[in-house]
From TrEMBL:
Family to which this protein belongs: Belongs to the LysR transcriptional regulatory family.
PANTHER family attached to this UniProt entry: HTH-TYPE TRANSCRIPTIONAL REGULATOR CYNR, TRANSCRIPTIONAL DUAL REGULATOR HCAR-RELATED
Any one GO molecular function term: DNA-binding transcription factor activity
Cellular component terms per the entry's GO annotation: protein-DNA complex
Sequence ranges assigned to domain HTH lysR-type in this UniProt record: 1-58
InterPro entries the UniProt entry points to: LysR_HTH_N, LysR_subst-bd, WH-like_DNA-bd_sf, WH_DNA-bd_sf
Originating species: Aliidongia dinghuensis
Name recorded for this polypeptide: LysR family transcriptional regulator
Native organism taxonomy: Bacteria, Pseudomonadati, Pseudomonadota, Alphaproteobacteria, Rhodospirillales
PROSITE patterns: HTH_LYSR
Amino acid sequence: MDILDLRYLAVTASAMSLTRAAEMLGLNASTISRRITRVEDELGVTLFERGRSGLRLTEAGRMMMIHVQRSLDDIEALIRAGRNNGHGLTGKVRLGVRLPPIGELLRSLLGAWRLAASDVELVVCEMNDHELQAAIAERRLDVAFVPRHALWPRAASMPAYREALVAALPSLHPLSASPAVTWDLLRGEVVLTQEWEGSHTALEFFASFLGSGIRFSAHPASKQTVLGLVAAGYGVTLATASQGTVGVPGVTYVPIAEQNAWVMVDLVWAADREEPVVGRFVAFIRDEARSRGLG
């Protein structure tokens, strides 16, 4: 007995006529009859009673057809699942982020992906630079949004979006009432930054704008903690415009009137990943980046 036998049984039981079943299947009635007889011989039961008015299921046949239809439904579901998975229509994408998706750019990207791939599960993990690199290498993450200055060597990446930088100042700071600040105005401040053992990417990124001789104060802590220190008067820091949309008591965000006051964020993935759904996500972000003039 094979899948074709099950299909022939189901169509014949629906048509209750070998002639009509043959027309529906595009076969000879004798072919269907032989296949049904073979199944009956294999099972040792009579499935159909033949009469002048056509066919009629026996009691054994009615019981058999319950299982036949279930089997055919399961096979169809298996084929559909395989097809969807093969085209990246279902599955899971494990996404790592360095910056939380609270700003318009990343939020809108993820919102567009949700609409385009409603049957794909998205799991977001927020990590620091070291953790993102390790998670991609160890296959614990599929893709990650990483600030370009934090990219590691030989990372498979492409531009995704960019964000403006703002100055985060204590609310009582003299510059907090300014419509905008410049790098020159910030160079005399203590600049708070995040830093982990062996990773100085944030400090180096800030230094690329502010130059040498800056009084940096580095902390192995989250951005929220650094902003808390800003509120307490320990110094100032740089933040993305999206981070500036989240109010922190005692912190004022001021625009930076410099043409280079922005950060590029890239999408990173393991080059040898073969999951279709991951490839679909990468292609989606690539197309979105191109539409914004970044590709």
